[in-house]
Protein backbone atom coordinates (compact mmCIF):
# COMPACT_ATOMS: atom_id res chain seq x y z
CA UNK A 1 0.00 0.00 0.00
CA UNK A 2 1.26 3.45 -0.93
CA UNK A 3 0.24 6.84 0.41
CA UNK A 4 -0.95 8.95 -2.49
CA UNK A 5 -1.88 12.63 -2.28
CA UNK A 6 -4.09 14.12 -4.98
CA UNK A 7 -4.88 17.75 -5.82
CA UNK A 8 -6.84 19.38 -8.61
CA UNK A 9 -8.07 22.75 -9.83
CA UNK A 10 -11.41 23.83 -8.43
CA UNK A 11 -12.96 25.65 -11.40
CA UNK A 12 -16.07 23.88 -12.67
CA UNK A 13 -16.60 20.15 -12.18
CA UNK A 14 -14.35 18.61 -14.83
CA UNK A 15 -11.18 18.38 -12.72
CA UNK A 16 -13.03 16.89 -9.75
CA UNK A 17 -14.90 14.45 -11.98
CA UNK A 18 -11.66 13.25 -13.53
CA UNK A 19 -9.97 12.98 -10.13
CA UNK A 20 -12.83 11.02 -8.63
CA UNK A 21 -12.62 8.41 -11.37
CA UNK A 22 -8.92 7.82 -10.64
CA UNK A 23 -9.41 7.93 -6.86
CA UNK A 24 -12.08 5.23 -7.08
CA UNK A 25 -9.50 2.85 -8.57
CA UNK A 26 -6.57 3.88 -6.37
CA UNK A 27 -8.42 3.67 -3.05
CA UNK A 28 -8.81 -0.11 -3.50
CA UNK A 29 -5.05 -0.56 -3.18
CA UNK A 30 -3.70 2.59 -1.54
CA UNK A 31 -4.36 5.28 1.05
CA UNK A 32 -5.55 8.41 -0.77
CA UNK A 33 -5.70 11.95 0.64
CA UNK A 34 -7.24 14.74 -1.43
CA UNK A 35 -6.64 18.50 -1.47
CA UNK A 36 -9.32 20.39 -3.37
CA UNK A 37 -10.43 24.01 -3.77
CA UNK A 38 -13.77 25.53 -4.68
CA UNK A 39 -16.22 23.48 -6.71
CA UNK A 40 -13.94 20.45 -6.57
CA UNK A 41 -13.96 20.39 -2.77
CA UNK A 42 -17.74 20.73 -2.68
CA UNK A 43 -18.20 17.73 -4.97
CA UNK A 44 -15.51 15.46 -3.51
CA UNK A 45 -16.20 16.17 0.16
CA UNK A 46 -19.77 14.97 -0.39
CA UNK A 47 -18.67 11.94 -2.39
CA UNK A 48 -16.20 10.78 0.30
CA UNK A 49 -17.96 12.02 3.46
CA UNK A 50 -18.24 8.54 5.02
CA UNK A 51 -15.17 6.86 3.57
CA UNK A 52 -11.50 6.44 4.38
CA UNK A 53 -10.59 9.06 1.73
CA UNK A 54 -9.84 12.39 3.45
CA UNK A 55 -10.71 15.55 1.51
CA UNK A 56 -9.09 18.79 2.68
CA UNK A 57 -10.05 22.28 1.44
CA UNK A 58 -7.26 24.44 0.05
CA UNK A 59 -7.35 27.81 -1.74
CA UNK A 60 -7.25 27.75 -5.52
CA UNK A 61 -7.34 29.86 -8.64
CA UNK A 62 -10.67 30.72 -10.27
CA UNK A 63 -11.85 32.45 -13.39
CA UNK A 64 -13.82 35.65 -12.87
CA UNK A 65 -16.67 36.46 -15.23
CA UNK A 66 -18.39 39.58 -16.51
CA UNK A 67 -22.19 39.85 -16.02
CA UNK A 68 -22.59 38.60 -19.61
CA UNK A 69 -20.69 35.39 -18.80
CA UNK A 70 -17.43 36.30 -20.56
CA UNK A 71 -14.11 35.52 -18.83
CA UNK A 72 -12.96 38.73 -17.12
CA UNK A 73 -9.18 38.52 -17.55
CA UNK A 74 -8.21 41.65 -15.54
CA UNK A 75 -10.18 40.48 -12.48
CA UNK A 76 -8.94 36.91 -12.98
CA UNK A 77 -5.31 38.10 -13.05
CA UNK A 78 -5.88 40.27 -9.98
CA UNK A 79 -7.29 37.29 -8.08
CA UNK A 80 -4.35 35.18 -9.28
CA UNK A 81 -1.91 37.76 -7.92
CA UNK A 82 -3.50 37.46 -4.48
CA UNK A 83 -3.30 33.67 -4.65
CA UNK A 84 0.34 33.80 -5.75
CA UNK A 85 1.23 36.04 -2.81
CA UNK A 86 -0.02 33.34 -0.42
CA UNK A 87 1.32 30.40 -2.40
CA UNK A 88 4.64 30.02 -0.56
CA UNK A 89 2.88 29.64 2.80
CA UNK A 90 0.49 27.03 1.38
CA UNK A 91 3.39 25.11 -0.17
CA UNK A 92 5.24 25.10 3.15
CA UNK A 93 2.20 23.70 4.99
CA UNK A 94 1.63 21.04 2.32
CA UNK A 95 5.32 20.07 2.33
CA UNK A 96 5.13 19.55 6.08
CA UNK A 97 2.04 17.41 5.61
CA UNK A 98 3.69 15.24 2.95
CA UNK A 99 6.75 14.76 5.13
CA UNK A 100 4.74 13.98 8.27
CA UNK A 101 2.45 11.51 6.51
CA UNK A 102 5.23 9.73 4.62
CA UNK A 103 3.84 10.50 1.16
CA UNK A 104 4.86 8.14 -1.62
CA UNK A 105 3.47 9.97 -4.63
CA UNK A 106 1.55 13.10 -5.62
CA UNK A 107 -0.95 13.36 -8.47
CA UNK A 108 -1.81 16.88 -9.63
CA UNK A 109 -4.62 17.86 -11.96
CA UNK A 110 -3.61 21.40 -12.91
CA UNK A 111 -3.13 22.50 -9.29
CA UNK A 112 0.18 24.26 -8.53
CA UNK A 113 0.71 24.07 -4.75
CA UNK A 114 0.88 20.33 -4.01
CA UNK A 115 3.41 19.44 -6.76
CA UNK A 116 5.67 22.28 -5.55
CA UNK A 117 5.45 20.88 -2.04
CA UNK A 118 6.23 17.40 -3.39
CA UNK A 119 9.40 18.60 -5.12
CA UNK A 120 10.49 20.30 -1.90
CA UNK A 121 10.42 16.98 -0.01
CA UNK A 122 11.49 14.71 -2.90
CA UNK A 123 8.16 12.99 -3.64
CA UNK A 124 7.54 11.99 -7.29
CA UNK A 125 4.72 13.79 -9.10
CA UNK A 126 2.32 12.57 -11.79
CA UNK A 127 0.67 15.36 -13.75
CA UNK A 128 -2.75 14.18 -14.95
CA UNK A 129 -4.80 16.86 -16.69
CA UNK A 130 -6.06 18.10 -20.02
CA UNK A 131 -4.20 21.43 -20.14
CA UNK A 132 -0.76 19.97 -20.85
CA UNK A 133 -1.84 19.25 -24.42
CA UNK A 134 -1.04 22.93 -25.07
CA UNK A 135 2.67 22.37 -24.53
CA UNK A 136 3.05 18.67 -25.42
CA UNK A 137 1.07 18.40 -28.66
CA UNK A 138 1.18 19.93 -32.10
CA UNK A 139 -2.01 21.72 -33.14
CA UNK A 140 -2.63 20.91 -36.80
CA UNK A 141 -5.13 23.07 -38.66
CA UNK A 142 -5.64 25.60 -35.85
CA UNK A 143 -6.08 29.22 -37.08
CA UNK A 144 -2.93 31.25 -36.52
CA UNK A 145 -4.51 33.76 -34.11
CA UNK A 146 -5.87 31.01 -31.87
CA UNK A 147 -2.52 29.22 -32.13
CA UNK A 148 -0.78 32.40 -30.96
CA UNK A 149 -3.16 32.76 -28.01
CA UNK A 150 -2.59 29.12 -27.04
CA UNK A 151 1.18 29.69 -27.19
CA UNK A 152 0.76 32.54 -24.70
CA UNK A 153 -1.48 30.46 -22.42
CA UNK A 154 0.98 27.55 -22.62
CA UNK A 155 3.53 29.66 -20.75
CA UNK A 156 1.19 29.70 -17.74
CA UNK A 157 0.62 25.95 -18.07
CA UNK A 158 4.39 25.42 -17.86
CA UNK A 159 4.49 27.38 -14.62
CA UNK A 160 1.57 25.53 -13.05
CA UNK A 161 3.00 22.03 -12.92
CA UNK A 162 6.58 21.28 -13.90
CA UNK A 163 9.31 18.79 -13.06
CA UNK A 164 6.86 15.89 -12.87
CA UNK A 165 8.04 12.29 -13.19
CA UNK A 166 5.15 11.41 -15.53
CA UNK A 167 2.82 13.49 -17.68
CA UNK A 168 -0.62 12.07 -18.51
CA UNK A 169 -2.80 14.08 -20.90
CA UNK A 170 -6.50 13.23 -20.85
CA UNK A 171 -8.38 14.44 -23.91
CA UNK A 172 -11.31 13.50 -26.13
CA UNK A 173 -9.12 14.17 -29.17
CA UNK A 174 -5.73 12.77 -30.12
CA UNK A 175 -2.96 15.03 -31.41
CA UNK A 176 0.61 14.34 -32.58
CA UNK A 177 3.35 15.06 -30.00
CA UNK A 178 5.83 17.90 -30.16
CA UNK A 179 9.49 17.01 -30.30
CA UNK A 180 10.71 16.29 -26.79
CA UNK A 181 7.23 15.34 -25.54
CA UNK A 182 7.01 11.87 -27.04
CA UNK A 183 7.21 10.42 -23.52
CA UNK A 184 3.91 11.96 -22.40
CA UNK A 185 1.08 9.44 -21.97
CA UNK A 186 -1.97 10.43 -24.03
CA UNK A 187 -5.31 8.92 -23.05
CA UNK A 188 -8.99 9.38 -23.69
CA UNK A 189 -11.11 11.08 -21.02
CA UNK A 190 -11.08 9.67 -17.50
CA UNK A 191 -14.49 8.12 -16.82
CA UNK A 192 -16.28 7.70 -13.52
CA UNK A 193 -17.77 4.24 -12.86
CA UNK A 194 -21.23 5.83 -13.13
CA UNK A 195 -20.46 6.95 -16.70
CA UNK A 196 -19.30 3.48 -17.73
CA UNK A 197 -22.47 1.97 -16.23
CA UNK A 198 -24.84 4.69 -17.47
CA UNK A 199 -27.93 3.54 -19.41
CA UNK A 200 -27.86 3.98 -23.17
CA UNK A 201 -30.80 4.67 -25.39
CA UNK A 202 -32.60 7.34 -27.34
CA UNK A 203 -35.46 8.92 -25.45
CA UNK A 204 -36.13 11.79 -27.83
CA UNK A 205 -34.95 14.56 -25.47
CA UNK A 206 -31.82 16.73 -25.59
CA UNK A 207 -29.49 17.50 -22.70
CA UNK A 208 -27.96 20.96 -22.35
CA UNK A 209 -25.14 21.74 -19.93
CA UNK A 210 -23.79 25.19 -19.13
CA UNK A 211 -21.32 26.27 -16.49
CA UNK A 212 -23.11 29.01 -14.53
CA UNK A 213 -24.02 31.20 -17.51
CA UNK A 214 -26.04 30.88 -20.70
CA UNK A 215 -27.13 33.89 -22.80
CA UNK A 216 -30.89 34.29 -23.01
CA UNK A 217 -30.86 33.94 -26.78
CA UNK A 218 -29.26 30.47 -26.49
CA UNK A 219 -32.14 29.30 -24.32
CA UNK A 220 -34.62 30.91 -26.71
CA UNK A 221 -33.09 29.01 -29.65
CA UNK A 222 -33.20 25.72 -27.74
CA UNK A 223 -36.92 26.27 -27.17
CA UNK A 224 -37.48 26.17 -30.95
CA UNK A 225 -36.14 22.64 -31.51
CA UNK A 226 -39.48 20.92 -30.90
CA UNK A 227 -38.04 18.49 -28.32
CA UNK A 228 -37.75 18.52 -24.56
CA UNK A 229 -34.42 20.00 -23.48
CA UNK A 230 -33.18 19.07 -19.99
CA UNK A 231 -30.92 21.90 -18.86
CA UNK A 232 -28.17 21.42 -16.24
CA UNK A 233 -25.82 23.94 -14.66
CA UNK A 234 -28.16 26.92 -14.37
CA UNK A 235 -30.00 25.73 -11.29
CA UNK A 236 -33.62 24.73 -10.82
CA UNK A 237 -36.15 27.09 -12.41
CA UNK A 238 -39.77 26.86 -13.47
CA UNK A 239 -40.30 25.03 -16.75
CA UNK A 240 -40.07 27.33 -19.78
CA UNK A 241 -41.81 25.72 -22.74
CA UNK A 242 -39.73 22.68 -23.67
CA UNK A 243 -36.90 23.72 -21.34
CA UNK A 244 -36.78 21.68 -18.11
CA UNK A 245 -34.22 23.05 -15.64
CA UNK A 246 -32.57 20.41 -13.46
CA UNK A 247 -30.48 20.82 -10.31
CA UNK A 248 -26.95 19.48 -10.56
CA UNK A 249 -27.22 15.79 -9.77
CA UNK A 250 -24.68 13.29 -11.11
CA UNK A 251 -27.04 10.34 -11.34
CA UNK A 252 -29.84 12.37 -12.88
CA UNK A 253 -27.49 14.00 -15.36
CA UNK A 254 -26.03 10.68 -16.51
CA UNK A 255 -29.47 9.05 -16.74
CA UNK A 256 -30.66 11.91 -18.93
CA UNK A 257 -27.48 12.03 -21.00
CA UNK A 258 -27.35 8.28 -21.55
CA UNK A 259 -30.85 8.31 -23.08
CA UNK A 260 -30.59 11.67 -24.88
CA UNK A 261 -30.42 12.28 -28.60
CA UNK A 262 -27.41 14.56 -28.16
CA UNK A 263 -25.67 17.05 -25.89
CA UNK A 264 -25.66 20.83 -26.34
CA UNK A 265 -22.99 22.22 -24.08
CA UNK A 266 -20.06 24.44 -23.37
CA UNK A 267 -16.85 22.94 -24.74
CA UNK A 268 -15.26 21.51 -21.61
CA UNK A 269 -13.05 18.50 -22.30
CA UNK A 270 -14.61 16.26 -19.65
CA UNK A 271 -18.31 16.71 -20.43
CA UNK A 272 -17.73 16.43 -24.19
CA UNK A 273 -15.65 13.27 -23.73
CA UNK A 274 -18.26 11.64 -21.48
CA UNK A 275 -21.00 12.35 -24.01
CA UNK A 276 -18.95 10.88 -26.86
CA UNK A 277 -18.19 7.78 -24.80
CA UNK A 278 -21.96 7.33 -24.41
CA UNK A 279 -22.36 7.67 -28.17
CA UNK A 280 -23.95 11.13 -28.08
CA UNK A 281 -23.11 13.76 -30.72
CA UNK A 282 -22.17 17.12 -29.21
CA UNK A 283 -22.92 20.67 -30.25
CA UNK A 284 -20.25 22.59 -28.33
CA UNK A 285 -20.34 26.33 -27.72
CA UNK A 286 -17.10 27.57 -26.11
CA UNK A 287 -17.50 29.99 -23.24
CA UNK A 288 -16.79 33.52 -24.49
CA UNK A 289 -13.15 34.36 -23.94
CA UNK A 290 -12.15 30.78 -23.06
CA UNK A 291 -9.46 29.88 -25.60
CA UNK A 292 -8.98 26.35 -24.31
CA UNK A 293 -12.66 25.66 -25.01
CA UNK A 294 -12.34 27.25 -28.46
CA UNK A 295 -9.59 24.75 -29.23
CA UNK A 296 -11.72 21.89 -27.89
CA UNK A 297 -14.53 23.02 -30.19
CA UNK A 298 -12.15 23.19 -33.16
CA UNK A 299 -11.03 19.58 -32.72
CA UNK A 300 -14.54 18.33 -31.98
CA UNK A 301 -15.67 19.74 -35.32
CA UNK A 302 -12.61 18.30 -37.06
CA UNK A 303 -13.35 14.84 -35.64
CA UNK A 304 -16.78 14.71 -37.28
CA UNK A 305 -18.33 13.55 -33.98
CA UNK A 306 -20.13 16.83 -33.44
CA UNK A 307 -20.09 20.50 -34.27
CA UNK A 308 -18.97 23.72 -32.61
CA UNK A 309 -19.83 27.38 -32.93
CA UNK A 310 -19.69 30.54 -30.78
CA UNK A 311 -22.70 31.04 -28.53
CA UNK A 312 -23.55 34.24 -30.33
CA UNK A 313 -23.90 32.39 -33.64
CA UNK A 314 -26.47 29.85 -32.50
CA UNK A 315 -29.68 30.24 -34.50
CA UNK A 316 -32.70 27.99 -35.03
CA UNK A 317 -31.31 27.17 -38.49
CA UNK A 318 -27.87 26.18 -37.15
CA UNK A 319 -29.45 24.07 -34.42
CA UNK A 320 -31.75 22.44 -36.98
CA UNK A 321 -28.80 21.60 -39.23
CA UNK A 322 -27.00 19.95 -36.31
CA UNK A 323 -30.06 17.94 -35.28
CA UNK A 324 -30.62 16.86 -38.87
CA UNK A 325 -27.09 15.42 -39.01
CA UNK A 326 -27.21 13.34 -35.80
CA UNK A 327 -27.12 9.99 -37.59
CA UNK A 328 -23.99 11.05 -39.47
CA UNK A 329 -22.25 12.14 -36.27
CA UNK A 330 -23.25 8.94 -34.45
CA UNK A 331 -21.73 6.80 -37.18
CA UNK A 332 -18.35 8.47 -36.62
CA UNK A 333 -18.21 8.12 -32.82
CA UNK A 334 -15.94 5.36 -31.49
CA UNK A 335 -16.78 5.12 -27.77
CA UNK A 336 -13.84 2.89 -26.83
CA UNK A 337 -11.40 5.56 -28.04
CA UNK A 338 -12.68 7.94 -25.37
CA UNK A 339 -12.06 5.63 -22.36
CA UNK A 340 -8.73 6.73 -20.88
CA UNK A 341 -8.77 5.06 -17.45
CA UNK A 342 -6.69 1.94 -18.21
CA UNK A 343 -3.79 3.86 -19.77
CA UNK A 344 -3.80 6.53 -17.04
CA UNK A 345 -3.82 3.99 -14.20
CA UNK A 346 -1.07 2.00 -15.88
CA UNK A 347 1.09 5.14 -16.03
CA UNK A 348 0.46 5.85 -12.33
CA UNK A 349 1.34 2.29 -11.32
CA UNK A 350 4.51 2.33 -13.42
CA UNK A 351 5.58 5.57 -11.73
CA UNK A 352 5.06 3.98 -8.31
CA UNK A 353 7.02 0.90 -9.36
CA UNK A 354 9.94 2.95 -10.69
CA UNK A 355 10.09 4.92 -7.46
CA UNK A 356 9.98 1.64 -5.46
CA UNK A 357 7.46 3.07 -3.03
CA UNK A 358 4.68 0.48 -3.08
CA UNK A 359 4.28 -0.94 0.43
CA UNK A 360 2.87 -4.37 1.09
CA UNK A 361 1.35 -3.49 4.49
CA UNK A 362 -0.29 -0.33 5.80
CA UNK A 363 1.83 1.95 7.96
CA UNK A 364 0.72 3.68 11.15
CA UNK A 365 -1.68 6.57 10.58
CA UNK A 366 0.61 9.05 12.31
CA UNK A 367 -1.59 9.82 15.33
CA UNK A 368 -0.58 13.21 16.72
CA UNK A 369 1.30 14.22 13.57
CA UNK A 370 -1.78 13.54 11.47
CA UNK A 371 -3.99 15.63 13.76
CA UNK A 372 -1.48 18.50 13.79
CA UNK A 373 -1.13 18.57 10.00
CA UNK A 374 -4.91 18.39 9.58
CA UNK A 375 -5.23 21.41 11.88
CA UNK A 376 -2.56 23.30 9.93
CA UNK A 377 -4.37 22.62 6.66
CA UNK A 378 -7.70 23.78 8.07
CA UNK A 379 -6.09 26.98 9.36
CA UNK A 380 -4.37 27.63 6.02
CA UNK A 381 -7.60 27.15 4.12
CA UNK A 382 -9.49 29.63 6.33
CA UNK A 383 -6.60 32.15 6.25
CA UNK A 384 -6.31 32.04 2.44
CA UNK A 385 -10.03 32.05 1.60
Q: What does this entry look like structurally?
A:
The chain has helices at 14-26, 38-47, 73-101, 113-121, 133-136, 144-160, 193-196, 216-222, 250-258, 269-277, 291-303, 316-324, 326-332, 341-355, 368-384, and strands spanning 3-8, 31-36, 54-57, 105-109, 125-129, 166-170, 185-187, 206-209, 229-232, 243-246, 263-265, 282-284, 306-308. The strands form 2 sheets. The protein has a 7-stranded parallel beta sheet with strand order 3-2-1-4-5-6-7, sandwiched between helices. Helix 2 (38-47) links the parallel strand 2 and strand 3 (54-57). Helix 3 (73-101) packs antiparallel against helix 15 (368-384). The model is unreliable at 357-377 and 379-385 (pLDDT under 50). The protein has 15 helices and 13 strands. By secondary structure, the protein is of the alpha/beta class. It has 2 domains: 3-190 and 340-378, Glycogen Phosphorylase B (Rossmann fold); 194-338, 3-Layer(aba) Sandwich (Rossmann fold).
**Cα-atom radius of gyration:** 21 Å
User: Helix count, per DSSP?
Assistant: 15
The portion of residues assigned to helices is 40-55%
- CATH architecture classification name of the largest domain: 3-Layer(aba) Sandwich
CATH topology of the largest domain: Rossmann fold
What is this entry, summarized?
The protein has helices at residues 14-26, 38-47, 73-101, 113-121, 133-136, 144-160, 193-196, 216-222, 250-258, 269-277, 291-303, 316-324, 326-332, 341-355, 368-384, and strands spanning 3-8, 31-36, 54-57, 105-109, 125-129, 166-170, 185-187, 206-209, 229-232, 243-246, 263-265, 282-284, 306-308.
Amino acid sequence: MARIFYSMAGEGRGHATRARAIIEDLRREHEVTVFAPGDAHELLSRAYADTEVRVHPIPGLRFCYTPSGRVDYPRTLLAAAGYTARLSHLVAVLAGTLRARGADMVIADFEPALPRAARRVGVPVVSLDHQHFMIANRLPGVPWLLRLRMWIISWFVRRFVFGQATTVISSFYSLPPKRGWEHAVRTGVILRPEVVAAPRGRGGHLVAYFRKFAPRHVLDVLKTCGREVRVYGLGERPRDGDLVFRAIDERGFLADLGTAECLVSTAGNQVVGEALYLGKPVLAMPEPGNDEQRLNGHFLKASGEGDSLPMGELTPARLGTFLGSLDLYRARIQPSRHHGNPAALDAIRRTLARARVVHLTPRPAGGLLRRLTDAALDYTSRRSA
